[in-house]
Amino acid sequence: MSVSFQTNMDEFLPLRDVVFNTLRKAILTGELKPGERLMEIHLANQLGVSRTPIREAIRKLELEGLVIMIPRRGAEVAQITEKNLKDVLEVRRALDALCVELACDRITEEEKKKLQIACEEFEKATITGDATTIAEADVALHDIIVAATGNQRLVQLINNLSEQMYRYRFEYIKDENKHNHLVDEHRMIYESILRHDKEAAAKAAKLHIDNQEKSIIRQLRLEKEK
Questions:
Q1: How far apart are CA 183 and CA 106, in angstroms?
Q2: How confident is the model over 135-146, as pLDDT tens digits?
Q3: Which of 84, 87, 97, 191 is the most buried (most CB within 10 A)?
C-alpha cells in the first residue's frame, strides 16, 4: 500500500478524529482504493501516530460501511458494488426529486442568487479538471437546493446519505467526458426551480441521478474486465 495523504492537524479536534477524517477522505476520494488493505502499523508510521487512533478510525469507518473486516486478512476498503450503488442512488433519486419540488415552492430570492452563483462556480470548477474541486462545487450547489426546502428532517436525511453518495459522485466526476453533461443538468435544475416548475425540476433531478448511475456502472464493469 502506497498513499501520499497527510493528516490535516486541527488543534480543535482530538487526534482520533483527525486520523478518522484523514482516512475517510482518502477513501471517499479514491486515494485509498476499493479492496486495499489497511495495515495499522503502516498507516501509523505514515501519519506519525500510534496504532490506537488508527484502530479507532478503522472501527468507525467499518460502521459507516467504508471499511470491511476480512477473516485472517484484517481491514480493507469496501468495494463499490453495483448493488450498493443502486441502493444508495435509488433513495437519493427520490429525495432529490422531493428537494427540488419543495425548493420550487420555498426558495427565497437570496437562495436563488446563491444557486446561480453555485452553478457558475461549478462550471468554473470543471475547467480546472481537478476532481476534488469539482466534487466540492457539486456538493455546494446541491446543499443550497436542500437548504431551500426549509425541511430540517429532510436536510438531515440527505446529509446522512451524502457521505456514501460522495464516493459514487467522485467516481462519476473523474470521467471528464461527463463534465459538460453535469453543467447542462445543473442548469436544467436551476432554471426549473426559478420557474417554480415542479414537474420539470423533478424530472431534471431524476435524470441527473440516472445518468450518474449508468456512468458509474459502466466504469465498474470496465474495471472488472481489466
A1: 24
A2: 999 999 999 999
A3: 97
Rounded Cα–Cα distance for residues 30 and 32 (Å): 5
Give the list of residues 6+ apart from residue 142 with CB closer than 8 angstroms, or none.
96
Q: How far apart are CA 23 and CA 76, in angstroms?
A: 12
Contact 63, 37 (CB under 8 A): no
Residue 213 in 3-state DSSP?
Answer: helix
CB 138 within 8 A of CB 173: yes
Name beta bridge partners: 70: 74
- List beta partners, residue 76: 37, 68
Rounded distance, CA 85 to CA 161, Å?
12
188-215 pLDDT, tens digit per residue, is 999 999 999 999 999 999 999 999 999 9
* DSSP code at position 49: S
pTM of the model: 0.80
Joined together, the cell numbers standing for residue 159 give 446529509
Select from 138, 223, 154, 127 the least CA-distant residue to 189.
138
Q: Which three cell numbers stand for residue 216?
A: 458509474
